[in-house]
Write a structure and sequence with these properties.
Shape: elongated
Structural class: alpha+beta
Radius of gyration: 69 Å
Number of helices: 35
Strand content: 15-25%
Bound molecules: adenosine-5'-diphosphate, magnesium ion
Strand order of the largest sheet: 23-22-21-20-26-25-24-27
Distance between the termini: 120 Å
Helix content: 40-55%
């Protein structure tokens, strides 16, 4: 850690705690100066941030810078206001407690800027939602509004806060900014009516006159020229180069609307502001020693803006009401009195309106949820101030700074030392200047300056500033921090006026002029003026002067006393919170950038107690925690203390720090707390804790995951077993049922089988049904495919015989029908012919079966193969069929090739171009064929006619075809005769021949010696 610190430590030292010569103011200043010259304006003293006003833009507040510092350990990056802000924020979230950041320093040292930067950082860094964005906007925009009304240019600072501001930013438990609240302290009202040379009134007046729209100014009766207003010109410094009133006016306008100020509110607000300007221009003249008014126009506008009748106003500004014996008497003012009353009224109006504005702002920032909130307070209060002439305001401001210094001492140095003592830690006391003596000097009861002032103010008679001074001298003579002209020694007396008193503040000597102390402290407003204001029609004025205000009979608290009690309650608010500090320094008195005035800075370093703070830091311990708390957080770092330590917390811590290797000078064990000297030791521990926490988290995560997975696994396993068992049971039950069923079925089946031939009864009906179904199913699979296939029809079981027969019949018919439907006309004719021939020869002629499968042709000789002459002769008769034949001569039986042609009328035997024989069908007696396998046919012709040549002996390869054709043309088939053995035929009328048909091993045709024609044919195997 240190190594990396040194590496980053480019210029000087980033943390004064690491400064070697930490007691040397010169070394302190050198470091500050070295860094300042490099524009490094921030340096730490531990967690306290020292800031030196650069008086120029450094470009170190960008969004990028904010991102850089978000969530980073404060010492890991160069010192920055963002680092501090982030650290506060994160501590608040992790420790869930309230914090405040005290920003202190002289006027112009950069307090307000610092508080704005912190606010801007939170606006960007905290958790955001849409709703919260509006809170964020209001928080941010409350700044320009309050600055416009409460800041002014002074000699020290062009934007000097003339009121103290304490702002609480409220966060919810997630760290989102959810609301805010502002407390304001003692506005410097005197500025409304008077400004020192070189100073201005509050910004808002100039913004209104310079930036206000024409109609608005017209409506308010104002002119666009600040020089015209008495209250704006006394400092002779209306225009300031660093201030742009016009654009600031626009910003304020926008901010007001965002912050829920209605149009009417804004209208009334500026009516009040304008009325103050008009009041300043009210002019009195002396007439017979009394004041008379000479500003009817101003009165007119006042009357309009405040909603009070002009004459009433006029009277109130020039007269005073005196009560005398239950009677009210009007007493006229002198001119001075009148001016005094006028200014008092202007101050009262402005002061009360400012309070109204703060209240209104708070309404807009308020978070009404009752959720638990933690807060970060930002205290930006006017810094210690020394002018040439210092009055009551400076007295109050410087008193306030004394109180804050006292608080700082109490919260840091003193409480630190006391704690060491309480814890029994050896400690070398660090001498420091305790400014309690000065606080007492101012605020002590009866003796303190405020008490004396109040006493004087409330005293009957004619108290004056000088009588007050006398009282002070009386009471405080000899006090080491108080001196007046009268009380001073010779040398000092020269530096003091007669009406002055001097206080040795912690931050230096300041000489106050008593002039105005009594009046300002009384802050009296004549009662009749108050009464008049109560009549106002302007709602803001009405609220500022409520009728319930205690009457003048009881004196209101004086300004100083009010301030004192405000500060005391502020102290209480702050004491209850964790404190953080930003100490702002100004490098020179001239607002000059880049110029480091040693004397000016040294003075501030001194009175801000920075050296003492550093010494305490170095001598003391950067960090302390109760043993229990420390142990609880860091116990995972040591195996002995993790997860539980049995002994006392102190022993546990002792064991823990030894385990962590703390060196003896790095820590001390107190009575109830552990003290760690250097931040680096704690950071190292915290880093280790971070790593360990991750490891632990991983381990716990892994263990938990393992545990969960194991649990899941076991559950799944158990479930699986259960499911398995159930499943098995189910399966077994099913199996058992199945078997029981099977047994039943088989039994029934057997019974059915045994009774299959009995009439249908309970015993066999199922079996028979099964047999039926089984037969039908098998039959369905095995149906014959052809009509001819009669054998493959399944043999039916006895009970199906009848059904089977019917089915076979039906099926055969079905097959036949299908077959018949599929037959062509040609095929039909063919079949008819085949049927015809079948009738003639089936079982009668041996070679008939071989012919069955041979299809019949229409003819065997096409006409084109026939002789044309022969054709011409036959054609008129219509040629029906022709076929080649062998003709055997009747005599000698020589064989010759001829063509047999059948016409409608006759059969012709043709030899090439010659018709050899014509046999009319009418003369055809019959046709003989053998019963054997030869192809002979003998046409018997009626031989009455001698011209006839006798019977024809023919051999034809297409015997059956030719015969069929012949039957068809003759439309008769009875003429065919099948003969066994021999056939007689007519050679000539009256002369017969014989043909003997025989079976033989060889086919042969020859003439036997007996003159018979022997026809031998091989016996055909019947198919
Ligand atoms: N961090 C800063 N960076 C640049 N300029 C700064 C810074 N702080 C202060 N200033 C300048 O100094 C002026 C006075 O600062 P301011 O915060 O108003 O002083 P204070 O509130 O302490 O009186 C600012 O107007 C601004 O010009
Ligand atoms: Mg300021």
């Amino acid at each position: 850690m240190e190594g990396s610190l040194t590496a980053r430590d480019r210029v000087g030292i980033q943390d004064f705690v690491l400064l070697d010569a930490y007691t040397s103011e010169t070394a302190f200043l050198d470091n500050l100066k070295k860094r300042f010259s490099e524009d490094l304006i921030y340096t730490y003293i531990g967690t306290l941030l020292v800031s030196v006003n650069p008086y120029k833009e450094l470009g170190i507040y960008t969004r990028k810078q904010m991102d850089l510092y978000m969530g980073v350990n404060i010492f890991e990056l160069p010192p920055h206001i963002f680092a501090l802000a982030d650290n506060v924020y994160r501590t608040m979230i992790s420790e869930i407690n309230n914090h405040f950041i005290l920003i202190s320093g002289e006027s112009g040292a950069g307090k307000t800027e610092a508080s704005k930067k912190i606010l801007q950082f939170y606006a960007v860094s905290c958790l955001r939602t849409k709703v919260l964005d509006s809170v964020r906007d209001r928080l941010l925009l409350s700044n320009p509004v309050l600055e416009a009304f409460g800041n002014a240019k002074t000699l020290k600072n062009d934007n000097s806060s003339r009121f103290g501001k304490y702002m609480d930013i409220q966060f919810d438990h997630q760290g989102a900014a959810v609301g805010g609240h502002i407390l304001s302290y003692l506005l410097e009202k005197s500025r409304v009516v008077h400004q020192n040379h070189g100073e201005r009134n509050f910004h808002i007046f100039y913004q209104l006159v310079e930036g206000g729209e024409d109609e608005l100014l017209q409506w308010l009766g104002l002119e666009r020229n600040s020089q015209n207003y008495m209250y704006l010109v006394q400092g002779a410094c209306v225009k300031v180069s660093s201030i742009n009133d016009e654009s600031d006016w626009k910003t304020v306008q926008k901010a007001l609307t965002v912050m829920d100020f209605s149009e009417k509110d804004i209208e009334h607000l500026f009516a009040v502001i304008a009325s103050v300007l008009h009041l300043g221009n009210v002019h009195f003249e002396a007439s017979q020693g009394y004041a008379t008014l000479n500003s009817s126009e101003e009165i007119h506008w006042l009357s309009k803006l405040l909603g009070i009748a002009a004459h009433v106003l006029q009277e109130a500004l020039t007269h005073r009401k005196i009560e005398a014996k239950a009677e009210e008497v009007l007493s006229p003012f002198t001119v001075d009195h009148a001016k005094y009353a006028r200014d008092a009224l202007a101050k009262a109006i402005y002061g009360r309106t400012f309070t109204w504005l703060v209240n209104k702002t708070n309404e807009s920032l308020e978070n009404k949820d009752s959720i638990r909130k933690t807060v970060i307070g930002l205290l930006d209060i006017y810094g210690f101030e020394v002018f040439d002439v210092n009055s009551f305001e400076q007295f109050c401001i410087n008193y306030c700074n004394e109180k804050l210094q006292q608080l700082f001492i109490q919260l840091t140095i003193k409480s630190e030392q006391e704690e060491y003592e309480m814890e029994g830690i050896e400690w070398q006391p660090v001498p420091y200047f305790n400014n309690k003596i000065i606080c007492d000097l101012v605020e002590e009861k009866h003796r303190g300056i405020i008490s004396v002032l109040d006493e004087e103010c409330l005293r009957p008679g004619e108290p004056t500033d000088l009588t007050f001074l006398e009282k002070l001298e009386e009471k405080l003579a000899g006090h080491p921090h108080f001196v007046t002209h009268m009380l001073a020694d010779q040398k000092t007396r020269k530096t003091l006026g007669r009406g002055d008193f001097r206080l040795m503040h912690y931050a230096g000597e300041v000489t106050y002029s008593v002039t105005g102390f009594v009046d300002k402290n009384n802050d009296l407003l004549y009662r009749n003026i108050k009464d008049v204001m109560r009549q106002s029609k302007n709602p803001i004025v009405q609220q500022c002067f409520p009728s319930s205000e205690p009457d003048s009979k009881k004196r209101p608290e004086t300004v100083a006393t009010q301030f004192k009690s405000n500060l005391s309650s502020l102290t209480k608010i702050l004491m209850s919170k964790e404190s953080w500090y930003v100490r702002c320094l100004k490098p020179n008195d001239d607002k000059r950038p880049g110029h480091f005035d040693d004397v000016v800075v040294r003075h501030q370093v001194k009175y801000l107690g920075l050296m003492e703070h550093l010494r305490v830091r170095r001598a003391g311990f950067a960090y302390r925690r109760r043993y229990e708390v420390f142990l609880k957080r860091y116990k995972p770092l040591c195996p002995d203390t993790w997860p539980n330590w049995k002994g006392t917390a102190a022993e546990g811590v002792e064991r823990l720090v030894r385990h962590l290797g703390y060196k003896p000078d790095e820590y001390k064990m107190g009575r109830t707390k552990l003290f760690i000297r250097h931040p680096r030791t704690l950071f190292a521990t915290e880093d280790a804790y971070d790593i360990c926490r991750h490891e632990l988290a991983t381990r716990i995560q892994a263990k938990y995951k393992g545990y969960r997975i194991k649990g899941d696994y076991l559950r799944q396993k158990e479930a699986a077993t259960k499911i398995e068992a159930c499943w098995r049971g189910l399966q077994a039950r099913k199996e058992r049922e199945r078997r029981a069923w099977a047994v039943k079925v088989i039994k029934k089946f057997i019974k059915g089988f045994m009774n299959r031939n009995q009439p249908v009864s309970m015993d066999n009906s199922e079996y028979l049904a099964f047999v039926r179904q089984s037969y039908l199913s098998r039959l369905k699979e095995n149906l014959p495919t052809s009509v001819l296939d009669k054998a493959s029809w399944l043999t039916p079981p006895p009970i199906m015989r009848e059904a089977s027969a019917i089915l076979q019949n039906v099926y055969t018919r079905h097959l036949v029908r299908t077959y018949v439907k599929g037959i062509t006309a040609q095929r039909k004719a063919q079949l008819q012919m085949k049927a015809l021939i079948s009738d003639l020869f089936k079982g009668k002629k041996e070679n008939y079966p071989q012919s069955v499968h041979q299809p019949f042709a229409d003819t065997r000789i096409s006409e084109k193969d026939m002789n044309i002459r022969v054709l011409q002769l036959m054609c008129p008769e219509g040629i029906k069929y022709s076929v080649p034949v062998i003709k055997y001569d009747r005599n000698g039986f020589r064989s010759r090739f001829r063509q047999l042609v059948l016409t409608q009328i006759a059969a012709y035997l043709v030899d090439e171009a010659k018709i050899k024989q014509r046999v009319e069908y009418s003369s055809l007696k019959g046709v003989s064929v053998s019963n054997l396998s030869d192809n002979f046919l003998i046409l018997h012709v009626t031989c009455e006619d001698f011209k006839q040549k006798g019977d024809l002996v023919l051999q034809c390869s297409y015997l059956f075809e030719a015969l069929t054709k012949l039957c068809l043309v003759m439309k008769n088939h009875n003429f065919i005769k099948v003969v066994n053995g021999s056939v007689r035929f007519d050679i000539q009328p009256g002369r017969e021949g014989v043909i003997d048909f025989k079976s033989s091993s060889e086919s042969m045709v020859y003439r036997a010696k007996n003159g018979h024609l022997i026809v031998e044919s091989t016996q055909m195997k019947s198919r």
